[in-house]
Amino acid sequence: MHVPRCSEALLQQALRYGCKRFCDESERWYEKLLPINTVIGQTDYLITIPYSETLIKRIKKLSIDGIEINECDWQFIVDQNTISLNNPPKKDNLDISIDLVYTPATLFTEVVDWIIDRWGMVIARGAEAHLKKMPSS
Fold first, then answer.
1. Backbone angles phi and psi of 3, in degrees to 5
2. Pair 98, 59: CB distance under 8 Å
3. Is residue 41 a contact partner of residue 89, using CB atoms and an 8 Å limit?
4. Which of 33, 41, 119, 133 is the most buried (most CB within 10 A)?
5. What are phi and psi of 21, to 5 degrees?
6. Rounded distance, CA 54 to CA 107, Å?
7. CA–CA gap between residue 66 and residue 94 (Å, rounded)
8. What is the CA radius of gyration of the chain?
9. Which residues pair with 95 in a beta bridge?
10. Whether the predicted pLDDT of 34 surpasses 90
11. What region does 38 belong to: left with phi over 0, alpha with psi -120 to 50, or beta?
12. How is residue 70 annotated by DSSP?
């Protein structure tokens, strides 16, 4: 992307803005995590994010042993990356399956390759539009 009279630093900042905005608004960055095994009586389960510089935007779907759990039966504790079930499991080793929607952290420096491969032009256009809205000096 080339924007006349735009520094490399400003261009990088605009691309990060465009990428974060794209991920936040489109929710295209989502995936199903490897299952977490239940423990009898345990209500809280830590979610391990497999990417650095990434935040969980929201939980798209949560199921236990293939049965989708209604959102009113669990909470996502954002600052702890933890799922808290309202009703503790009555059996060990049931699979908790979680579909997550990710977003880049505010000051991220890299994002997964496939986002750029699939959506790079859209992100670049958003960055370019953002730069064009800025007042020129």
1. -125, 120
2. yes
3. yes
4. 119
5. -65, -45
6. 10
7. 9
8. 19
9. 37
10. yes
11. beta
12. P
Token readout for 17 is: 């803005």
Three-state SS annotation for the chain? CCCCCCCHHHHHHHHHHHHHHHHHHHCCCEEECCCEECCCCCCEEECCCCCCCEEEEEEEEEEECCEECCHHHEEEEHHHCEEEECCCCCCCCCEEEEEEEEEECCCCCCCCHHHHHHHHHHHHHHHHHHHHHCCCC
CB pairs under 8 A, 24+ apart, for 74-80? 77/44, 80/46
Total-model pTM: 0.82
Could you write out the DSSP letters of every residue in 92-106? SS-EEEEEEEEEE-T
**Token reading at 79:** 């600052």
Write down the mean pLDDT value for the chain: 92
Band the pLDDT of 122: cuts 50, 70, 90.
Answer: very high
Look up tokens 């794209």; give the residue: 22
DSSP type of residue 109:
S
% helix / strand / coil in the chain, to the nearest 5? 35, 30, 40
- With beta carbons less than 8 A apart as the criterion, state whether 102 and 23 touch: yes
The two structure tokens encoding residue 75: 């909470």
